[in-house]
C-alpha cells in the first residue's frame, strides 16, 4: 500500500511515544486504561503451569533459584538434625550438610560423604526423588518457554486519520521486525467505546472496523492497515474529543504462520483516543535511494507523523466523506 511522502515544506516529523505500562497481575491493559478483575479467586493451583510460562525470564530464574535454595536448605537441616546421618561429615559443621544435600539433589555422588544411617538413607532417597521431579519440571518449563512461538510484529505508536483518495481514512502501521515471512497473515480492528442505553445504563460496545485489506498471503516488511471513514463507519463524524469523551479504544490484532517456526503467531495493540491523530499522515519510510539494486526501508521513521494541513483534530463527516 503506497504512502504519501511528506511535502518538502512540512514541519519536522512528530514522534509520539506511547507510555510504557508494566504488566500487573490481575489487571488488563486497554489503551491507557487499566481494568482490574475483582471478585474472582486470586489463585488456582491448576494455573501454576500457565503462571510460570507468563513470568518474565528474570523472575522465572529467580523463582528456580529460590526453589533450589529452599530445597537444599530444608534437606540440609534434616541431615543436620540427626548427628551421624552423613558419614565423613564434620560433626556440627552445617556447610557439610548443605554440600551433601546439593550433591544428593543433583545425584552427583562424589563418594567422600554418604548416608551414614537408616535415617540418612531415608532422607537422601526422599531428596533424590524430589530432585528428579524438580529437574523434570524445570526442564519441561524451560523447553516450553524456549519453544513457545513468538512474533516480532511491531505496530506504530500512534494511528492517524487523513484523507485517502478523497475519503477520510484511519491508518496505522504494522511491521515485521524479523527477516522472515509470516504466511496467511490476517488483521482485525475493533473500536471499543462506552454507550448509554435508553434505560440509562452504560454499556461497552465493540464495533468491527471494515478494513481495506484484511489478509495478506505474505507479510514480510510493513503493512499499512486502513479503514475508510464513511457513513457506515462508527468513526463517521467523530472528533478526537468525541472519542476521548466516549472512552474509545482502538484494538488491533494480527495473526499468521511463521514460516521459520511453522507455527501460529499473533500480536495485538491498542490505541487510546489521545493516540489517534486527526489531520496527520505517516512519514514515507520507503526511500527512492538505492544501494546497488536494493531499495532502503527506513524503520527509524516508522512512528513519525506529519500534519497534512487539515483543520485541527476534527472530522467534518459528510463534507470530507463525499468531497464536492
TrEMBL record:
Tell me which species this is from.
Duganella aceris
Every Inward rectifier potassium channel C-terminal domain range: 153-306
What parts of the sequence cross the membrane?
Answer: 60-81, 119-144
- Return the InterPro entries for the record: Ig_E-set (IPR014756), IRK_C (IPR041647), K_chnl_dom (IPR013099), K_chnl_inward-rec_Kir (IPR016449), K_chnl_inward-rec_Kir_cyto (IPR013518)
Q: How does it sit in the membrane?
A: Multi-pass membrane protein
Q: Which Pfam families match?
A: Ion_trans_2 (PF07885), IRK_C (PF17655)
A GO term (biological process) for this protein? monoatomic ion transmembrane transport
Tell where it localizes. Membrane
Protein name (database record): ATP-sensitive inward rectifier potassium channel 10
The residues covered by the Potassium channel domain are 76-146
Identify the keywords attached in UniProt to this record, alphabetized: Ion channel, Ion transport, Membrane, Potassium, Potassium transport, Transmembrane, Transmembrane helix, Transport, Voltage-gated channel
Source domain of life: Bacteria
Q: Specify whether DNA-binding is a keyword of the entry.
A: no
